[in-house]
């Protein structure tokens, strides 16, 4: 028989960044808040030195990632293929447990730009009719830069972001990113130190007339106390960052920045190993009554709540909406329906430069160390004649310096004495020039429920239909030329690259690409083409709010966390100031 | 033939002993202590596999020895106990496939773009792969893999890697040679470069070779020192120094 918990004002599903933000914002408003987290609790004490300094456990065996056993995705390239499960982690790795992706992230806290938020408007102004591929489905975010920036600014303070300000209230600052959107405040802290590769990249791009700046970092450069009173220690460049929990309390995580404070509220609690399978609705279908989850004993539990917040990873939010029959599923043929549309991923790749005579000491680093240029970002260069819309940041970072991840010289054997010799010559003698590129939404890339494969609770897996976008592959060929020019300027002993070609297809496994999935339950002005309104409120069920990159209509060339967090603060403000007074749709369709 | 134990060449044993001496020297010991410390090769000989059968173990020793041989460049897979690492991995959730999504239907012949699609965990993959490679080796050279001279071992491994060895001729429907090789090579490199607590990278010899400081994990001064070779040797998660 189904168990029933005591009712709460707010139930939060998923305790990563977005769930923690909603938790503290709504607990501060005096509401009774409970969070349900599928994975384990993860306390800072579990990640004290030296535990995280273990490449096998964290990078190779994915110790703090969601295992496919718990929630796999099926993948196909187009609607005529049969989707296959990502049986072991490959192209993307979702966080798992308390902290979610906020525990293992690299800590690059790059923002989107004002152009990214108004991409459709930009496209209409800069491209003639027919100049862009017909399959693209570009849309504006239904919020303005001025509306969302103060919330990203607050998140910068929560994380203790370290960086160089490029645009302070409209005034361009020396040394920062001149292409960034206006900041209402400077970065809270000075940038991290440059490693050798970052110094070389900075120098080379400066000599080429480009505009390098320090990677915006959520690993703090100096001792810092955030607005919640949380004390954060300066980064010690331990070299274990991307895919690792911070052993030094320096890389901002929900734990270090928010949860230790939130746990002090008597009106907040959380349950772990609580696997939410469905949002339950009233008979009229217009409001949610709570959620059903499977607890650690395998029992089904109903959790009543007045407000339901979905703040699991974006892909899992979409799956929950579909499994709860909330919103009409997207149909790629008729283009009707809203849940699943505009799924996007993100582009990576780059050049590896080998310098026989330089010592890079790659282990002395933080995930977000590095220098970047945004000169080729969306809107910063005219691309109408080049046949694509979008852009990329180009950067050199040193995210981890562990040996299994080390690049090996071009042409070296993959095993035997030759491999060992190449490993010796390569390790510590290479640097990367990489890109992070935008990904446009298309008609045919989307999410729905898999008709065959189910999870251990019998719920259908999420099916990802995705292949690379021609518009974006053209963008990558352009970036390749620019990166090769920087590479040649740096004059390495030899170099190699792994930029996608025009005929490349998405590989779901085994190689990691990145975890910046977006779309699937997007925000918009029109309930016929979006799942959520501008406050991330479901158009269909007004007491349901959905946090995450699933809200992005297309993916930009920045890391998603700053925008995900900014949107969560924006939505929390709307709930506190508008929704609580008068529960109902915050936007009239 | 199949049950005869294979002989591993003498070379790795000698190099293993030299490494034993070198590490003692680093700690200020003198050669008189040498006799009291078993070489890495002796220790490997004494190791009782927890997963692999005796025949499989001989294969693992022989294959790892060729994938990362001991030579003048540095220690090999046997000096660093890589087969021990792989043996221990077989009993972890990874080896047992407990972290993977293992519900059917399976399509073992799917494009490699979709990654692992076989209907069995890593344990079974190894068991099948070793047996099939030995069958291939017997048909081609009339000997089990581990009994072949080095050059022929390399030829068999190359046939696996290039997927020239056709496992379907032995009735194997799901596993191809190229995939078995890929996983064997990946696990071998992991054992060579992982923390010693997992059984491989004995004495952190591989880390010393490439100048990786292991779990030191604190470089607030060194981030500012550019283009100078880091001077300290590695430490392991258990605090061992080399």
Automatic annotation (TrEMBL), chain A:
Keywords: FAD, Flavoprotein, Oxidoreductase, Plasmid. InterPro entries: FAD/NAD-bd_sf, GMC_OxRdtase_N, GMC_OxRtase_C. Pfam families: GMC_oxred_C, GMC_oxred_N. Residues 445-568 form the Glucose-methanol-choline oxidoreductase C-terminal domain. Residues 216-344 form the Glucose-methanol-choline oxidoreductase N-terminal domain. The keyword Oxidoreductase applies. One of its GO terms (molecular function) is oxidoreductase activity, acting on CH-OH group of donors. SUPFAM superfamilies: FAD-linked reductases, C-terminal domain, FAD/NAD(P)-binding domain. It comes from the Bacteria. Belongs to the GMC oxidoreductase family. This is GMC family oxidoreductase.
From TrEMBL, chain B:
InterPro entries: Gluconate_2DH_su3. The keyword Oxidoreductase applies. It comes from the Bacteria. It holds the Pfam family Gluconate_2-dh3. The keyword Oxidoreductase applies. Its EC number is 1.-.-.-. GO terms for molecular function: oxidoreductase activity. Keywords: Oxidoreductase, Plasmid. This is Gluconate 2-dehydrogenase. The lineage of its organism: Bacteria, Pseudomonadati, Pseudomonadota, Gammaproteobacteria, Enterobacterales.
């Amino acid at each position: 028989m189904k168990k029933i918990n005591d009712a709460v004002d707010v139930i939060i599903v998923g305790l990563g960044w977005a769930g923690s933000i909603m938790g503290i914002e709504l607990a501060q408003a005096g509401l009774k808040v409970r969070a349900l987290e599928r994975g384990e609790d993860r306390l800072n004490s579990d990640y004290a030195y030296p535990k995280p300094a273990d490449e096998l456990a964290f990078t190779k065996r994915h110790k703090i990632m969601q295992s496919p056993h718990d929630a796999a995705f099926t993948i196909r390239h187009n609607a005529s293929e049969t989707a296959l499960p990502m049986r072991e982690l490959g192209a993307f790795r979702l966080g798992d447990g308390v902290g979610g992706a906020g525990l293992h992230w690299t800590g690059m806290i790059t923002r989107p730009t004002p152009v990214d938020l108004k991409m459709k408007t930009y496209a209409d102004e800069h491209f003639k009719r027919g100049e862009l591929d017909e399959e693209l489905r570009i849309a504006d975010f239904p919020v303005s830069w001025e509306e969302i920036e103060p919330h990203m600014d607050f998140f910068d303070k929560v994380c203790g972001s370290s960086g160089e300000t490029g645009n302070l209230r409209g005034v361009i600052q020396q040394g920062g990113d001149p292409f960034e959107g206006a900041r209402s405040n400077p970065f809270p802290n000075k940038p991290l130190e440059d490693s050798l590769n970052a110094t070389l990249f900075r120098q080379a791009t400066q000599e080429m007339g480009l505009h390098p700046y320090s990677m915006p970092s959520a690993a703090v450069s100096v001792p810092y106390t955030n607005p919640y009173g949380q004390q954060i220690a300066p980064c010690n460049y331990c070299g274990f960052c991307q895919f690792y929990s911070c052993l030094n309390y320096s890389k901002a995580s929900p734990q270090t920045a928010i949860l230790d404070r939130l746990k002090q509220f008597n009106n907040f609690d959380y349950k772990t190993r609580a696997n939410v399978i469905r949002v339950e609705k009233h008979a009229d279908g217009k409001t949610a009554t709570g959620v059903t989850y499977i607890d650690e004993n395998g029992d089904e539990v109903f959790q009543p709540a007045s407000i339901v917040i979905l703040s699991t990873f974006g892909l899992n939010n979409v799956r929950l909406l579909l499994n709860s029959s909330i919103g009409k599923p997207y149909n790629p043929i008729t283009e009707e329906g809203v849940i699943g549309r505009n799924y996007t991923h993100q582009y990576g790749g780059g050049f590896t430069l080998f310098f026989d005579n330089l010592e890079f000491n790659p282990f002395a680093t933080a995930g977000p160390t590095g220098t970047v240029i945004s000169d080729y970002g969306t809107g910063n260069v005219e691309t109408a004649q080049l046949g694509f819309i979008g852009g990329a940041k180009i950067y050199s970072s040193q995210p981890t310096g562990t040996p299994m991840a080390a690049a090996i010289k071009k042409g070296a054997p993959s095993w035997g004495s030759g491999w060992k010799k190449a490993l010796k010559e390569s390790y510590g003698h290479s640097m990367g020039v990489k890109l992070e590129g935008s990904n446009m939404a298309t008609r045919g890339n989307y999410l729905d429920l898999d008709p065959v494969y189910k999870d251990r609770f019998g719920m259908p897996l999420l099916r990802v239909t995705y292949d690379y976008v021609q518009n974006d592959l053209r963008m990558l060929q352009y970036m390749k030329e620019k990166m090769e020019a920087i590479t040649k300027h740096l004059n390495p002993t030899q170099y190699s690259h792994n930029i996608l070609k025009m005929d490349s297809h998405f590989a779901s496994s085994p190689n990691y690409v990145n975890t910046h999935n977006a779309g699937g339950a997007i925000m918009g002005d029109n309930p016929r083409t979006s799942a959520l309104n501008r406050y991330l409120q479901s158009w269909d069920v007004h007491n349901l709010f959905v946090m995450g990159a699933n809200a992005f209509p297309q993916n930009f060339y920045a890391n998603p966390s700053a925008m995900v967090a900014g949107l969560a603060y924006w939505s929390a403000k709307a709930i506190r100031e508008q929704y609580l007074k008068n529960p109902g749709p915050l936007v009239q369709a | 033939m199949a049950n005869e134990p294979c002989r591993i060449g003498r070379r790795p044993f000698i190099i293993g002993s030299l490494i034993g001496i070198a590490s003692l020297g680093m700690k200020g010991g003198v050669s008189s202590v040498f006799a009291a410390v078993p070489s890495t090769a002796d220790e490997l000989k004494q190791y009782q596999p927890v997963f692999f059968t005796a025949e499989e173990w001989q294969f693992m020793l022989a294959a790892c020895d060729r994938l990362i041989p001991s030579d003048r460049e540095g220690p090999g897979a046997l000096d660093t106990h890589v087969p021990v690492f792989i043996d221990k991995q077989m009993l972890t959730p990874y080896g047992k496939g407990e972290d993977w999504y293992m519900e059917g239907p399976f399509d073992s012949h799917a494009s490699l773009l979709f990654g692992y699609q076989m209907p069995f965990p890593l344990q079974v993959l190894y068991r099948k792969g070793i047996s099939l490679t030995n069958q291939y080796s017997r048909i081609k050279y009339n000997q089990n893999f581990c009994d072949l001279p080095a050059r022929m071992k390399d030829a068999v491994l190359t046939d696996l890697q290039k997927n020239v060895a056709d496992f379907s001729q032995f009735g194997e429907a799901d596993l191809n040679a190229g995939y078995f090789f890929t996983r064997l090579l990946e696990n071998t490199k992991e054992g060579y470069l992982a923390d010693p607590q997992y059984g491989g990278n004995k004495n952190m010899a591989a880390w010393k070779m490439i100048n990786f400081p292991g779990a030191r994990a604190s470089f607030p001064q060194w981030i500012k020192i550019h283009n100078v070779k880091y001077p300290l040797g590695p430490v392991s998660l258990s605090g061992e120094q080399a």
